[in-house]
Amino acid sequence: MDDHRMDIPGDDDEIRRIEAAPPSHRYARGWYCLGLASEFMDGEPHKIEAFGTKLVVFQGESGKLGVLNAYCPHMGGDLSEGTVKGEEIACPFHDWRWGSDGRCKNIPYARYVPPRARTASWPAMVRNEQLFVWNDPENGVPDPTIIPDLADKFSGGWSNLSWKSEVMETNVRELIDNMSDLAHFFYVHGEGKRHGPSYFRNIFDGQIAYQYMEFHEKGSKMIHDPGIPFLGTVNDLAPGNFRSEGVYYGPSYMINPQWRNAAEGQVEVILFNAHYPISPYRFMLHIGVMVKDAPQLSAEQNAGRAHFIQEMLKGAFYQDVHIWKTKTRIDNPLLCHADGPMYQLRRWHDQFYCDLADIDPLMTKRFEWTADLSYANEVWEQQVIENIERETRRARK
Ligand code: FES
Ligand SMILES: [Fe+2]
Question: Which ligand sits closest to the CA of 246?
């Protein structure tokens, strides 16, 4: 063997080396939420940097939304600097008119349009008050039913959908990893001062990935069969309990209902966690929050309460950012028995990065895993006490 270091016991071969291949320049097949639909429906062209290029989003006179590569194939003009004229977006450079299907419909100064005058277009739809585009390197036909329609939540009994978006300077895998990273909920999101998850289950099945998580007050038990969605109300949770169901529908769109039966009050929210890649090294991270009205409150009181909860959750959502900024990419995480199924999660997500014909059946096969958190919970309970005591001492100084 050429590598003479192999002969030295206890040397390099015992050190775990971080491996990290550069991220894929392919963008996962799926529906991506670009943001609140209303923001794009003003008759103006909007620019979005995504999928390694710039997109133009526009709404034609009939109300139809178009999403095209912003760079005009004529001479490279930027359509997002153009003007909506009728059903088309007109390029600011030479006024070529592009339809939402990506075809050039008219060149005002030419007798006819070259038959090959077609640019990249992304099928678009509005759902849950959000604008979605379908990205597919194979140009397959999208299935709109993948994204659940929560129309009943938008027709009364719930607050507005409050939205926030921020660019993250890293690859999207860091975000997806959260799905199975149960310990970070204690250390990052709980800041070591609130108890960690007492129940955690992942299910990966077809194009859907589930994260069922509960936080229990000491001594309180789950009342719910863990492996299926919770269909009860917040009243069904023991006092102090919190349940969260984060479900990815495809590579980038999570709907996350949460129920909290806290001493301060009962809260039921739906959190939308969505992203789209800008480049292999950046992505846009969205959070949307809506809050279920409390029946005993007036409309005005409910709006105020919802606003408070929405701002709080939006603030907490970006707690991962500092970790992402300072960590390194790692293809071979060194896991312990109390960590979640990170490799199976990544395998599930890989299905969206390959051609349909190349999907390994293991990527979509149902996989279920439940954490044994009895030991972790004992430790975390103790750590919460110590961390709070330490902070109190520091504050007194
Ligand atoms: S570059 Fe767009 S019309 Fe010429
Ligand atoms: Fe996180």
Answer: 2
Does residue 233 sit in the same domain as residue 120? Answer: no
First to last CA, the chain: 61
Per the listing, tokens 């990170």 go with 342
Q: Distance (Å, rounded) from C-alpha 376 to C-alpha 182?
A: 11
| Separation of CA 206 and ligand 1 centre (Å) | 42
User: How many whole angstroms from 79 Cα to the centroid of ligand 1?
Assistant: 8
Pick the residue whose CA is nearest to atom 3 on ligand 1: 94
307 shares a domain with 174:
yes
Per-residue model confidence as pLDDT tens digits over 206-248: 999 999 999 888 767 776 656 778 888 888 888 888 999 999 9
* Burial (CB count <10 Å: 0-12, 13-18, 19+), residue 138: exposed
pLDDT tens profile 48-75? 999 999 999 999 999 999 999 999 999 9
Q: Is the CB of 89 under 6 A from ligand 1?
A: no
The reply to whether 193 and 128 lie within a common domain is no
Residue 193 has pLDDT above 80, yes or no: no
Distance in Å, CA 97 to ligand 1 centroid:
9
The last residue of one of the domains, among 100, 124, 146, is 146
- Predicted TM-score of the model (pTM): 0.93
Determine the average pLDDT of the residues in 295-318. Answer: 94
